[in-house]
Task: inverse folding
């Protein structure tokens, strides 16, 4: 027998499983499950007809490069198109600063590998995105949480935590933020705080990693396009590594995302990517490029905003009708998630066990906290299920909740 | 000004650029260049009509999962199809042992991250594939070369090198091999030696990483299917991590490859992949799955073998006619490459400079050696250029060679 443990690297031994992905494998095994777990876009938004037309034309055979290896940086016309996408987000950038990545997850992985040595500190919001936690933990970084107010990271806590880590002799390199409709809270960092964070990063010599998958998906009854202004838009000194993706706005199946970073760093990210996958899928990149150039993406955006706002409404109304005030959550300003707080004495992991019996899943809040807290939170994704499934899921969740809140006034329909 | 160097990790500082990818960027800048550099498949082999049909059907809109996030392991029906592909290669495997990767390059990167700590030793052939060198160097592994005979790695040298490294206190974990039509030499490890290598790995407690992108592409005038038998086919003890890809047989633009490893390791690779890109492109995987199920891949294989054998002939004949005996090379038994030795006193990097002036490129041999040697070798890829471009490239290469071999009898047409 081979002793495989003896062959594992430190990384290999300490790999951190994604709580979200774990839920995904459950979904395959349990029939008739309703999933509020993964942040999947609703497939009714995929522009099938456009994609069929684009794919047919690309596969005519007239241009062999459509299915060939491509440059690591990305398909040049797509990079040019992304410069325009960034300009629409008020960020001036050049193709030298851009890199196409295989999903934003690869961008996070690149940040970890190129910037972080074991023990280096990344400051993250409490709570924060699990994919970032995994990527940074897998390079043995030290993740330190910062308290969050309703308008984003608490600046006093941020500075105190940073100074404490530095005093202890650690290298605080990065502040990781999801400013728009944060995963999992759905919150928005205020414009004022964005400027303050940038100023703070310059003062303390920290790089900001700005992860922006959801910026386009604001709910226009409670948020405006202006409020989603990227921190990167005001980055005069090259402090910000910005990540975004076409997964939430076109389709995740294509795995096309990008990062915009100071050119010196982009060149390093490109080199690292060479040995990671040579290049992202070139056919996928060409499809996305055409979807931008033909205006498909632009036409989609308002439809997506309407659809997800409607789904937020549906879940909120359904939850309020079923569980009354047993669950409370901050109003999401955009994105895919509700972030309810559980009643006293109930924790997310316990609830999940009961929920699975009721054939509904979500992600327990603890997965989003790097400080071991979050037991009284759950993340509910309303983005994917069809309306009737969403209702059904809420009913099942209510059944799972009932024993725990029997002693409370649970206002039901 | 931000001092970005202060933010780089050890990996970030020491990133190793791929010589092949570097050539690729040259290709974009020099008009009318003939490239013998990259191992690109010939786009005339891409089955456009089938792919158009498959894509059209997949994008009908009837099945939303076609463009959705997918499981990290891979699209289950594709994994099932790969079990059959492996069976045709005489390897019995299960889906628990398989992982779909974003190109074989990701497989190499996964091997590096999950198995290698800084300073761990990987034994590699002299010469070996540059993409493996990059992936392993980027985790700060120590790459140690082993001499190669015409039938593969020299077993005495292998054992001596392994024992020397162990005596020096280093962990020798992996032996990396490209048994079929090695990149860059085009050689084939003999069946007898494959068995001996497996036996050696079991005896010395080393894992074999078997990289097999070209196995299907044997030239049937000098090699047979039987001679390409995977080392993994005889792996009774779970010693072999096997990598292969659809990039050379279907199209590289889809970035769909796979690895087959003992289930314990596969589970680790899957976890690592979660934080690297969540999953490989699901649309691409579905296209590849259909291409297998509809027999497209099977019908293609003999055509590919004929085509590349013909291109090998064309390059060999053209080279012999132009440069006579100034260049000699081992007969490639399959794959995409010739591996000529340069005349005395000429080195590959110098020749490359002159070749670029003549608008032809290749990869200088030194890129494939981990011991600093290889100056008198060059790798010429005949797989991609159309016949007339191939001829033109050889003429240009001859012009670049001429000053250096003026004193030799250079037999020209």
Result:
């Amino acid at each position: 027998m081979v002793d495989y443990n003896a062959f594992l690297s430190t990384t290999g031994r300490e790999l951190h499983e994604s709580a979200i992905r774990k839920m995904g494998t459950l979904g395959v095994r349990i029939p008739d499950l309703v999933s509020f777990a993964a942040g999947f876009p609703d497939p009714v938004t995929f522009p099938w007809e456009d994609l069929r037309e684009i794919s047919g034309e690309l596969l005519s055979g007239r241009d062999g490069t459509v299915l060939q290896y491509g440059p690591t940086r990305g398909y040049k016309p797509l990079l040019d198109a992304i410069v325009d996408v960034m300009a629409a987000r008020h960020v001036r950038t050049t193709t030298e600063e851009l890199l196409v990545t295989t999903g934003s997850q690869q961008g996070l992985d690149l940040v970890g590998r190129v910037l972080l040595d074991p023990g280096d500190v990344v400051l993250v919001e409490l709570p924060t995105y699990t994919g970032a936690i995994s990527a940074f933990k897998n390079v043995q970084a030290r993740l330190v949480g910062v308290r969050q107010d309703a308008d984003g990271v608490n600046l006093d806590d941020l500075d105190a935590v940073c100074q404490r880590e530095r005093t202890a002799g650690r290298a605080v390199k990065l502040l990781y933020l999801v400013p728009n409709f944060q995963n999992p809270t759905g919150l928005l960092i205020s414009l004022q705080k964005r400027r303050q964070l940038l100023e703070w990063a310059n003062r303390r010599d920290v790089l900001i990693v700005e992860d922006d998958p959801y910026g386009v998906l604001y709910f226009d009854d409670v948020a405006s396009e202006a409020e989603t202004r990227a921190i990167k838009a005001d980055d005069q000194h090259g402090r910000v590594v910005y990540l975004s993706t076409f997964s939430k706005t076109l389709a995740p199946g294509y795995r096309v995302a990008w990062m915009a970073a100071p050119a010196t760093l982009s060149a390093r990210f490109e080199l690292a990517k060479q040995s990671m996958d040579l290049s992202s899928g070139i056919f996928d990149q060409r499809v996305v490029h055409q979807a931008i150039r033909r205006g498909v993406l632009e036409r989609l955006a308002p439809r997506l905003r309407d659809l997800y706002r409607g789904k937020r409404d549906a879940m909120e109304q359904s939850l309020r009708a079923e569980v009354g005030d047993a669950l409370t959550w901050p109003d999401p300003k955009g994105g895919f998630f509700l972030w309810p707080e559980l009643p006293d004495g109930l924790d997310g992991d316990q609830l999940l066990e009961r929920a699975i019996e009721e054939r509904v899943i979500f992600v327990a809040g603890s997965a989003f906290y790097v400080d071991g807290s979050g037991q009284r939170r759950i993340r509910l994704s309303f983005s994917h299920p069809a309306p009737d499934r969403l209702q059904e899921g809420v009913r099942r969740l209510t059944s799972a909740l009932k024993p725990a809140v029997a002693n409370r006034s649970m206002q039901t329909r």
